Amino acid sequence: MKKVYFKTFGCRTNQFDTQIMMSQLKEFTVTLNESESDIIVVNSCTVTNGADSSVRGYINSMSRKYPDKRVILAGCGSHSKGESLFESKKVFGVIGHSEKENINRILKQDSRFYQIGDLEHIDSTIVEEFIGKSRAFIKIQEGCNFRCSYCIIPSVRGNARSQREDLILSQISKLASNGFGEFILTGTNVGSYGRESGSSMAKLLKKISQIRGVRRIRIGSLEPIQIDDEFKEILTEPWMARHLHIALQHTSDKMLEVMNRRNSYHSDRELFEEIAQKGYAIGTDYIVGHPQESELEWSEAIKRVKDLPLTHIHAFSYSKRDGTPSALMREQVRGDIAKARHRELTDIVKGKNYIFREEHRENLEVLVESGKDGVYQGLDQYFNRINIKSDEELSSNWILINSMEVKDDRNWARV
Asked: What is the reported pLDDT for 406?
């Protein structure tokens, strides 16, 4: 059988989508080595111009290095850049989100193909195994109804729609029976889950927790307005990972308005402090250098960041994205200024994370992901990475750490 290699860019949702495609390959073999593959499927990200550039760079390098291999474009980039890459013959084929469950049939085609599908589909595939993973990613919804001024994602993922609850629970049950204990709920806008059916994230989490074998549940990025009283009630449950990623995008109210966001700093701060008091690490997304981010707005924003109980950050410099309102805004921020602000922001949160790790040295529940030469890696309940030295095989095991050394970028322990 021909061998297929998957190269995944971008978010956890893309990682899940890759697993869906892998699970559908009945007449092909999945390989984790691109050099021995016959076909390379690129599951692309298009959230920024930089993401597009990374995907194009990879496709070009594969074409030069392996001219005889077929390169297939999938993912969000298929909707934004697929047509141009196909017409210029940079790729053999293009498949959209709704077509990934048909990948086995599509890859058997001898002629070039462009099958983009639609943006209303939601997958029905139940993934029973995650190749090369110790944690399981579960996509619970697709699309987004928010219209943030900088974001292209609703145009390439569609409006918010939820996966059927019975399919989610069935998938987790099968994965738990296969030995998975940690589950990460993903989606384009996971906090919108169940809105159209009268359900909610909290209701779903409670049902998941009752499945035999479920030990820890993590949640993808939530919006501040999606964390309601019902959700707060489950924060003390033992199966909840003690880390939440709550997307702020900025801490200047003017910039939040420019970005067409639905949150405000003062309510965000109250929320963060309430959650931090329950022993949680808190991460966020943050855009630096968005148009109209003056020195005044930045000074206010960075002061507010210092006041927030943040421990993790996914910060990136604004990248112009054609087709969004932000792309037409004036008062662009120079690249060198955005870079300096990005460094200032990440250094502050890095320091906050170090202090948090110093204060949380004991009772660390670590799921070991992988190891090499007696050094294993994993994540604790606070989403902090830890290296563990051991003479024993620890991969995919749960380890309780009560003594460790805090270093600059991660913790270290000996078992």
From this structure: 96
Q: What is the pLDDT of residue 196?
A: 87
Backbone angles phi, psi at 63, to 5 degrees: -65, -35
Q: How far apart are CA 293 and CA 101, in angstroms?
A: 42
One of 3.40.50.10860, 3.30.565.10, 3.10.310.40, 3.80.30.20 is the CATH number of 136-359, namely: 3.80.30.20
| Distance, CA of 362 to CA of 326 (rounded, Å) | 45
- Residue 412: which H helix or E strand, with range? strand 411-414
Neighbour-count burial of 300, counting CB atoms closer than 10 A to its CB (0-12 exposed, 13-18 middle, 19+ buried): middle
For 276, other C-beta atoms within 10 Å of its C-beta total: 17
pLDDT number for residue 131 = 61
Task: Spell out the residues 6+ positions from residue 208 whose beta carbon is closer than 8 angstroms to its own.
Answer: 168, 169, 172, 183, 214, 217
Residue 140 tokens read as 């619970």
The per-residue pLDDT for 340 is 97
CB atoms within 10 A of CB 44: 30
What's the token pair of residue 68? Answer: 């005889």
CA distance 207 to 340: 45
CB distance 345 to 315 below 8 Å: yes
Q: What is the mean pLDDT of each run of 10 residues along the chain (415 residues)?
A: 94 86 94 95 88 92 94 94 93 94 94 92 76 81 94 90 94 92 93 92 97 96 96 97 98 97 97 98 97 96 98 92 90 94 98 97 94 94 97 93 93 95
Residue type, 158: G
Taking domain 3-115, whether its CATH number is 3.40.50.12160 is answered by yes
Alpha carbon distance 144, 158 (integer Å) = 7
Model pTM? 0.86
Supply the pLDDT for residue 356: 98
Assess contact for 220 and 257: CB atoms under 8 A.
no
Contact between 225 and 201 (Cβ < 8 Å): no
For residues 38, 43, 48, 51, the Cα torsion angle rounded to the nearest 10 degrees is: -30
- Runs of H (alpha helix) within 246-334: 253-258, 265-276, 295-307
**Residue 197 CB neighbour total at 10 angstroms:** 10
Distance CA 44, CA 79 (A): 10
